Amino acid sequence: MQTMQELYKYEILTKEQTDVIQKAAECLARSFIGMDVSGKWVQEPMVGQLNINYEDFYAFTKDYLDSTIEQGYCAVAQDINNHVVGVLAGDTNAPEIIGEDIFEGSFYDMNVILRVLEDVDKRFMEDYKKRNGKEIKDGELLHLFMLGIIAEHDRHEIIQQLGNTLITKASSQGVKAVLGEATNPKSIRVMEKYHNMKKYKDLEGNYIVHKYQDNSKLNGIPENLADGTYILIKEL
Is the pTM of this model over 0.85? Predict the structure, then answer.
């Protein structure tokens, strides 16, 4: 029997690999917009609730990869046919709070997701400053931004290998912690189980979470599917 390592090839992308970057963006967009995996429908809950189409989301993903790829934190899994079947993309930029709508036209609803992420990021940054007496700087944290798996099999193993690849690299480069915004319980479970990440608690002992029930655009998401977006962290 072949081992995981033989079935899939893992690598961190460089900006020269334009065709693989494109495939990585496609993989992420497909997994977020929604796809059938072994008879089960898989998609990101906010994307599922909002009016977001594949083309717009692909363009957003591709822009993100193009702008962060040189930092060296986009890992992909390719199968034996060189199809990209898994992507974990991150960056070491300090979180940025824009605070206004930046998407328009058919992609307007992406602003709702942006606001949710900015809400939890802002509260995390404020708590970080209280704890450490200073603002977060670029290069301090590895921000795991997007995870997409379109493989039918071995999905958890792929997630584990992709995460290990990036976290090991971040650790070797002196990054202090790994941070992510988990938008559904499945992401939380995977990050807790495979990467020892934990839901972040602020100084008052409360989770930093944006509850979907309190958001007029997202309160249609069933609570048993996902209750909110949480900050997860792992110190390195």
Answer: yes
